[in-house]
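User: Here's a protein and a ligand (3-methyl-2-oxobutanoic acid). What would the complex look like?
Assistant: Let me lay out the input and then the predicted complex.
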Amino acid sequence: MSTYTIDTATSRATPSPAPMKRLTAPAIMARKGGDPIVALTAYTMRTAQLLDPHCDLLLVGDSLGQVIYGLPSTIPVTLEMMCAHGAAVVRGSWHALVAVDMPFGSYEASPDQAFMNAARILKETGAAAVKLEGGEAMAETVAFLAKRGIPVIGHVGLTPQAVNALGGYRARGRDEAEANKVLADAKAVAEAGCFALVLEGVMEEIAVEATKSVACPTIGIGASAQCDGQILVTEDMLGLFERTPRFVKRFGDLAGEIAAAAEAYAKAVASRDFPGEDQIYRAKGDRK
Ligand code: KIV
């Protein structure tokens, strides 16, 4: 089954979606306590095409730093990378709301800085929302953007951009002080006006309590099935890596399939079985 249609007027395989046909930020917000929100990361046009029919939300996550660029963390990810991949994902989708991560250093200095860069992301990609990490310290910025027409997804708990401050990627909220901090962060950005909130790497009880305490839907990753939705890094979920974190469930074995296909290709080239009769061109009245 094709996951896209050819626009006969332009011959584009990825016609621009009709305005307002996509899920919107208010539509996602209205899912609080309803059917779970299905979200995945996407970084490329073709992946977006394949995921879009099954997802409510596609996140162009700054995890592309590690997944696509082989960087050691999300810290070096740039606005240019996010804009290029964000635009590709918008071109490959028409149903899901596309949100783009604001990379480290593009929003923390001030609400003004955040507005300028969030506006650039929306203009250059066609995405409908941005996501930014941080709790109480980012509440003012979330409110500033939300009041100026920029839908924001919050992200609290384990916030990978703060890896240097947190000292690693361990799940948050094991002791009472940390648990209270995660809850205070969740409430602060939700009250500031984010329309959805990612809860990453938190003890399950905290995710449940946060979900009950905030007005916007929570989207869990390493959190709880009681969240209002779930998100995973697509390449983790597809089994593209040998090692996956504890909270990832593999729904496929893409690494195995790619390795097997590459091995079969290598053998066919070595044995001169490829290209075969079906893959070569012959002029009419063959000169053979
Ligand atoms: O960057 C990312 O992919 C994310 C998700 C894991 C929530 O922020």
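Summary: The mean pLDDT is 93.
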